[in-house]
């Protein structure tokens, strides 16, 4: 809940069941923020946030790589409720390990500063100033404002992903194989979000993101999946389809990801 709230750093909740010894105290807080970088050429910032959660005697922590990018609002997407806003600010959060959650409940994948009830099945979280239904449980998919935001998400994802693969490979917990698990391989549990996934796929196939090594020049480089099909070159990371997307560090021919 605190991930996208800039002025709240700690939240404590006591569940009183009438028995002082049986009462549950839960606390979640932002323990640290690191690696802040500004990318002026694309109006974006990136940083790493660590959340810690405590419930009675148990404690857990999870880090998120955050990507925040601004996009100009298009004329055809303007609405009366947002006439004074000229930029969409989209934030994507990429968990460094399993997300914090209580019990077996599924974690929301879409935030409008506070979480909605939308479980996307994407391996990252989407945050933006969405217009919501009166229940606050879901965004309004027929809103021109929200449609404009959703159309920008593939670009924001691709910029974040390229930055991770090409400049953060030496960061703790961010090895190159682990980064490729952020690709939304499985269909969304919300069919109306499928255009976001297909937009990401189109960009992934043509972007130079696959680490490779020239057998003749012995230099490291990055190549696109579309350009490498049919090539005799060998690559450090290959893609195989099992129950999900698996990247393994071995030398073999790459295959196109099954989105």
What does this structure look like?
By secondary structure, the protein is an alpha+beta fold. The chain has two domains: 36-46 and 66-207, no CATH class; 208-259, no CATH class. It is 17% helix and 34% strand. The chain contains four helices and twelve strands; from the N terminus they run ββββββββαααββαββ. The protein has helices at 144-167, 176-179, 194-206, 225-228, and strands spanning 10-15, 24-39, 44-55, 58-72, 87-95, 110-112, 114-115, 125-127, 210-213, 220-223, 235-241, 245-252. It has an eight-stranded mixed beta sheet, with helices on one face. A hairpin with a 2-residue loop joins β3 (44-55) and β4 (58-72). α1 packs parallel to α3.
Taken from the alpha-carbon principal axes, the silhouette is globular
Topology, number of strands? 12
Helix-strand category: alpha+beta
Side by side, the strands of the main sheet go 1-2-3-4-5-8-6-7
Low-pLDDT segments:
169-173, 215-219, 230-257
Number of helices: 4
The profile of the biggest β sheet is:
8 strands, mixed
Beta fraction of the residues? Answer: 25-35%
Cα-based radius of gyration, to the nearest Å: 20 Å
InterPro entries: Auxin_embryo_med
Any key phrases for this structure?
alpha+beta, 8-stranded mixed beta sheet, two-stranded antiparallel ribbon, 17% helix
Produce the secondary structure layout.
Layout lengths: L9 E6 L8 E16 L4 E12 L2 E15 L14 E9 L14 E3 L1 E2 L9 E3 L16 H24 L8 H4 L14 H13 L3 E4 L6 E4 L1 H4 L6 E7 L3 E8 L7
Parallel strand pairs: 6-8
Antiparallel strand pairs: 1-2, 2-3, 3-4, 4-5, 5-8, 6-7, 9-10, 11-12
Summarize this entry quickly:
The protein has two domains: 36-46 and 66-207, no CATH class; 208-259, no CATH class. Helix content is 17%, strand content 34%.
């Amino acid at each position: 809940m605190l991930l996208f709230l800039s002025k709240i750093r700690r939240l404590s909740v006591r569940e009183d069941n009438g028995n002082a010894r049986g009462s549950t105290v839960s606390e979640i807080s932002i323990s640290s923020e690191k690696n802040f970088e500004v990318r002026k050429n694309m109006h974006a910032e990136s940083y790493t946030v660590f959340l810690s959660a405590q419930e009675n005697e148990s404690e857990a922590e999870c880090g998120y790589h955050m990507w925040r990018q601004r996009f100009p609002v298009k004329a055809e997407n303007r609405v009366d409720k947002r006439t004074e806003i000229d930029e969409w600010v989209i934030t994507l959060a990429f968990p460094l390990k399993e997300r914090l959650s209580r019990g077996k409940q599924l974690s929301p994948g879409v935030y409008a500063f506070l979480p909605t009830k939308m479980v996307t099945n994407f391996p990252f979280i989407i945050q933006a100033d969405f217009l919501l239904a009166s229940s606050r449980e879901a965004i309004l998919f027929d809103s021109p404002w929200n449609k404009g935001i959703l159309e920008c998400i593939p670009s924001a994802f691709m910029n974040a992903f390229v930055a991770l693969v090409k400049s953060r490979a030496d960061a703790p917990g961010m090895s190159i194989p682990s980064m490729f698990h952020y690709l939304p391989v499985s269909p969304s549990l919300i069919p109306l979000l499928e255009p976001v996934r297909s937009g990401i796929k189109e960009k992934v196939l043509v972007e130079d993101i696959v680490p490779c090594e020239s057998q003749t020049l012995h230099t490291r480089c990055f190549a696109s999946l579309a350009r490498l099909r049919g090539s005799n070159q060998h690559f450090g990371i290959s893609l195989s389809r099992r129950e999900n997307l698996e990247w393994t560090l071995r030398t073999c021919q790459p295959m196109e990801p099954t989105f």
